[in-house]
Amino acid sequence: MARPETAPEVSKAAEADRPPRFSVILPVWHPEPDHLRQCIESVVGQTYDGWQLLIVADGPQPPAVTRVLADFEPDPRVRVIRLDHNVGIGGASQAALEAAGEEFIALLDHDDVLSPHALGAFAAELALAAPVDLAYSDEDKLEHGTGERKMPFYKPGFSMERLRCQMYLGHLLVMRRTLALEVGGFRGDYDGAQDHDLALRVAEQARSVVHIPRILYHWRESPASTALDTDSKEWAWEAGRMAVADHLRRTGFPAEAVASPVARGVVDLEPRLVEHPLVSIIIPTGGTSRIINGAMTLLVERAVSSLVERSSYPNVEIVVVLDASCDDALVRRIAAAARRSVPVVLLRDGRPFNFADACNIGAVRSNGEVLIFLNDDTEVRMANWIERLVMYATRPDIGAVGVKLLYGDGRVQHAGVWARGGPAHRYVGFRGDHPGNFHALRLAQNCLAVTAACLAVGRDRFDEVGGFSSRYPLAYNDVDLCFKLLQKGYRNVVDCATEVVHHESSSRDPTVREWEIDLLRKRWRPLLMSDPFDNPANLAAGVDEYPSTPVDIVERKAARGELVLAGRRWPDRDFYNLGGRWHG
Amino acid sequence: MSDSTIRDDRTADQPPIEVDDLDHLAAGSGRSALGPDRRSAEPRSLPALRQELDEARLQLLTAVDAVAGAEAEHSAAIARIRELEHQHHMLEVERDELRLELERLSARRQGLTPPLFGRLVSGVRRVSRLRKARHGPA
What we know:
- The complex is a heterodimer.
- By secondary structure, chain A is α/β, with parallel strands linked by helices.
- In chain A, the strands form 6 sheets. In chain A, strands 1, 2, 3, 4, 5, 6, 7, 8, 9 and 28 form a 10-stranded mixed β-sheet that branches. In chain A, strands 12, 15, 16, 17, 18, 19, 20, 23, 24 and 25 form a 10-stranded mixed β-sheet that branches. In chain A, strands 10-11 form a two-stranded antiparallel sheet.
- In chain A, helix 1 (8-15) packs parallel to helix 5 (118-126), helix 8 packs parallel to helix 9 (234-251) and helix 10 (299-310) packs parallel to helix 11 (328-337).
- The longest helix of chain A has 18 residues, at 234-251.
- The two termini of chain A are 37 Å apart.
- By secondary structure, chain B is mainly α.
- Helices cover 69% and strands 7% of the residues of chain B.
- Chain B contains 4 helices and 2 strands.
- Chain B has helices at residues 23-26, 31-34, 46-110, 114-135; strands at 2-6, 17-21.
- A two-stranded antiparallel ribbon of chain B has the order 1-2.
- In chain B, helix 3 (46-110) packs antiparallel against helix 4 (114-135).
- Chain B is rod-shaped and about 100 Å long.
- Chain A binds chain B through residues 322, 328, 331-332, 334-336, 338-339, 341, 344-351, 360-361, 363-365, 463-471, 483-484, 487-488, 522-526, 573-574, 578, and chain B through 4, 6, 8-11, 13-14, 17-23, 25-26, 54, 57-58, 60-69, 71-73, 75-76, 79-80, 137-138.
């Protein structure tokens, strides 16, 4: 596993006036002695020397462990804090936090192994001018028995929405010590998820969060570890759910935290809306019919009837924007589809078809506080899909909200948009029940953009950015809208736990014209070239987010300088500056 | 505006659905629908006011979009300039390195003594450093 590694970051950090220093926090309770030794050795062997190691022996330890600790204690950089009795991992971590003296703390588990340049890489990033309060890196696992590296987790840039559903930041978590103390430090009530609990509280207050897209630590599989057996620590998952529930209470997020029935460690958010603002569902249509399930189907009729019959949200109006070709017979069918007490507004726009214009006139003529743009070739299946969208769209810091869209045959059509030179649907063609990259297809997360086939946005935000741009009559008007929201500081969300069926492109020509992408690039080139929610490693190996790229392929490419992100060498400081940061 | 009311099979307690034909938008301006002078003090009909409101709100969206788009294009242009400046700078550095290599080879061919060659190397490096300092990090 060990390989010669150079650390140019060390010199960069050392050049700073006051290079960042770390108190590495390592709580210990009856670990495998060899694993503990390797863990400590990986700290002592760092290429960057701005650190102290605080090991907390959480109560009396077996003799073999005591010997390991004694071996390292003579090192002046290593301090062992011995607690008289076992207080649990939260209490032990808190003891270390209170004893820490450096600017940053770095959380470490006894079954982790740091990459030799891990702290140097963090120091280089933290030495930059902008204040960073929380930082994390990519990770992989060491196979039980062989120590072989596997299962790399190339993570996205910081996503508050994802952190709310999953502790994806991992173990080697670096945070500003003073902020960790200010928010109350570690809490023993959340043992097993004490890091998730603290990360949530720090992230709520953080000025910026940085993701370093490099594997800087290796998580050892062991029979007692969740790295090997996700069922081994049921109590830890429950602690994680409780930590999220507490976060929801603190932040007034209108949802209940529920353990995902299909994914260990994932928390589902069940909407518990206090208010039900009027939602306007805007459906532009050309009155297209096509064969679905063997029957000729008027798409808009099916869309309206499915959302009226299956949606549980109590305060909705439907605004259908018809093009000039729609006759009165079609109008009657739409009216019949909305047969329950749902107010329906029908607008007939005689102008040449322009999706952006149709959406805008629908928005102008609607009354809702929240707008949901819905293609006429969609079909609702979940009762609370509107509640789930409203739950996010009414948050003050959220821009556009999308869902996981499935083709009629159940495959994924859309799970957010990422930019790989040009915008593209994530996970297109994957099985509908596929977990995605570490459950990405089962939870909410931030992304660059979502498709207007199903897009919710607060009216005030829609107006603030000027709605859909008429300059994009067919393609990319949704991406442009989402980028404008990002530009204003809002976060876009795709909630992959919410599903809507989309018989995509049956309603329009799917061809994208060159001038459309050129126009988008002219406005948004920096975002298109550096997607903060993608990871250069996935891009480098030429694979989708899943299956994860073998570690060796990526590292060999990096070593040869072949790893580029849309023309930028990786790692590249500009990449982080453009997108890797998150400003809270 | 020509409103047509569609009778359908909705229940009696539900209002009939109305279709608004947005002809005024197709005309490109509400002026023809609203009469020659919008500033006229004469009272206007509710549909006419509604049309005017539609148009005003759409114009507002268009104007705000234009500002957002211009801001984005401005940022994109600045980012592009920085990127090209960086590439230019890197090419200059590479050129200096190549020049250094050329001088070294040339010096070897001419049999220059090591002290003289050392002065030459340090001079070229100094130029390279100054260039780097002038441009700063990318």
